[in-house]
Write a structure and sequence with these properties.
alpha+beta, 6 helices, three-stranded antiparallel beta sheet, DNA binding, elongated, DNA-binding, 18% strand, 45% helix, ATP-binding
Length: 171
């Protein structure tokens, strides 16, 4: 490892620590020539599948795009940055577990929807409306009804999606 200060080619590791989630190793280094200290981070480089778009184009997986999708769906929702990070890691983990070299973008969307369903119902419906290309209010109603059927145990954990849904539950 070259020293970033003097470009000397010999540095030594003073200390190594594993990150909290176990995915990164932080190494504290010292240059043999100028005695400056700096940190390096070591992560495993795992190849994620290429994403096949609906028009047939292939793109390398881009974590930044994934994060933007989560941020848009969760905009102004009571979800912490840590929860979003866990959801992003969950999607990436699902991509790795697929074992595929290429995955259709629709499958990635399904992974995102599964994570959003666990995080926030409103964000889930927001994402689903774009992902499934809702044409009218009826499509929203159907998705909300499907969500309520799939997640009966979450009634007290999140705010209701529609006031009518709350009224039905009270009767």
């Amino acid at each position: 490892m070259h020293c970033p200060f003097c470009q000397h080619s010999d540095t030594r590791v003073i200390d190594s620590r594993v990150s909290d989630d176990g995915s990164t190793i932080r190494r504290r280094r010292e240059c043999e020539a100028c005695n400056e200290r700096f940190n390096t981070f070591e992560t495993a480089e795992l190849k994620l599948p290429a994403i096949v778009k609906s028009d047939g184009r292939r793109e390398a997986f881009d974590e930044r795009k994934l994060r933007v999708s989560f941020d848009r769906a969760l905009q102004k929702r009571p979800v912490s940055a840590e929860e979003i990070d866990l959801a992003v890691r969950g999607v990436i983990h699902a991509l790795r577990l697929s074992g595929e070299r290429e995955l259709p973008s629709l499958r990635v969307g399904e992974f995102v929807m599964a994570e959003l369903k666990k995080l926030d119902q409103v964000a889930y419906v927001r994402f689903a409306s774009v992902y499934r290309k809702f044409e009218d209010v009826q499509a929203f109603r159907e998705e909300i009804e499907r969500l309520e059927r799939d997640l009966p145990g979450l009634e007290g954990l999140q705010l209701p999606l529609l006031e009518a849904a709350t009224d039905k539950a009270k009767k």
